[in-house]
Amino acid sequence: MRQGDLVVRNSYGGDVLFRVEALRSEYAILKGTDYRLLADSPLDDLSIVDNPESTPVVQKVRIKVNESWQRMQLERRKQVSHSEQSSRPSALQETYFEVPGKVLHLDGDGNYLKKSMQLYNTMSVPAYGLHLHESQMANMLFRLLPQVRPDIVVITGHDGVLKLRSPDTRFSLASYKNSQNFVNAVRVAREYEKSRDGLIVVAGACQSHFEALLDAGSNFASSPGRILIHALDPVYVAIKASYTPIRDTINLPEVIHGTISGIDGVGGIETLGRFRVGLPKRKVTS
C-alpha cells in the first residue's frame, strides 16, 4: 500500500472511499474522496480499490451529486427567467447587469478546492480560493478579508469526531479533529464584519460541531446530525447565497434540502442574500 492509493475500510463495510494521505508503521491517515472526512485506520483493515467508479458507494454519491447539480442549474434558469419577465420597464429590460455575491473559499483539501472553484466558475460566481491547513485559516482570514472584501466566506476542509470519546463529550470542541480551527476562523470573520447579513459565513466539514460554529457567528454550518457531508455541500450553500437577491432571505428549507447531505448535514439561520442587479449594463467588465 502506498500514499495516494484509493481504499475502503473493511470494518465499516466499505461505506466511504478514501485516499491514503500518509502511512505510519501500522496505520494510515485517510481523507475522503467525496466526503470531507479525516480518519485513520489500521493497515490490515484497508482494501485497495482499483476501479472506484464501479463500486456501489461511489455510484450512489455520483447520483446524488448529479441531482444536486441539476437542481442548482434549474434554480439559476428560473431566476434568469424571472428577472427577464419582471416588472422593469420594457425599454430597460436588456440594460441591467448582474452582480452575484463574491466568495472567499478557504479549503483544507487541495482536490476539493479545485472542484469547488470549477463549480463557482461554471455558475459564474466570482470566487477566490486558497488551499491551506485548517489550523492556518484564522490567521489567513485576518489578512485576506480586507484585501478580497468578499460577500460570502466558506471555511471548510476535513473534520471528524475523535475515537474513544464518550457520548457525554459530544459537545466538547476537544472531541473534534478540526472544529476548533473552524471556530477560530469564524470568529475572525465575524470580528471583521459583525452583521450576519453583511458577511455570510459557511463553515464546517464532516461531523463538525454545528452548534459551536453557529455560536461563533456562522450563518450556515455542518453538521447538525454529526454525519458525513459531501465535498460540494458548502459550495452549494455559497452559490445559493450568491444568487439570492439582497432584498430576500435565503430559503432555508430549499438550500438545506438542496445539499447532497440534507438537513442532518447542513443547517443555518435566516439570512439575506447577496445578489444585486444594476443599471445600465456596463460596456467594460472589470
Descriptors:
286 residues; alpha/beta; SH3 type barrels; Rossmann fold; 2 domains; 6-stranded mixed β-sheet; 5-stranded antiparallel β-sheet
Ordered list of secondary-structure elements with their pairings:
Layout: E1 6-9, E2 18-23, E3 27-32, E4 38-42, E5 46-48, H1 56-84, E6 97-99, E7 103-107, H2 110-122, E8 127-131, H3 137-148, E9 152-156, H4 179-192, E10 200-203, H5 210-216, E11 220-221, H6 233-243, H7 252-258, E12 267-268, E13 276-278
Parallel strand pairs: 7-8, 7-9, 9-10, 10-11
Antiparallel strand pairs: 1-2, 1-5, 2-3, 3-4, 6-13, 11-12
Helix pairs in contact: 3-4
Structure notes:
With 286 residues, this protein is an alpha/beta fold. It folds into two domains: 6-54, SH3 type barrels (Roll); 59-278, Response regulator (Rossmann fold). Helix content is 33%, strand content 19%. The chain contains seven helices and 13 strands. The chain has helices spanning 56-84, 110-122, 137-148, 179-192, 210-216, 233-243, 252-258; strands spanning 6-9, 18-23, 27-32, 38-42, 46-48, 97-99, 103-107, 127-131, 152-156, 200-203, 220-221, 267-268, 276-278. The strands form three sheets. The chain has a six-stranded mixed sheet, with helices on both faces. Helix 3 (137-148) packs parallel to helix 4. The radius of gyration is 20 Å and the shape is globular. It starts with 5 loop residues before the first strand and ends in an 8-residue tail after the last strand.
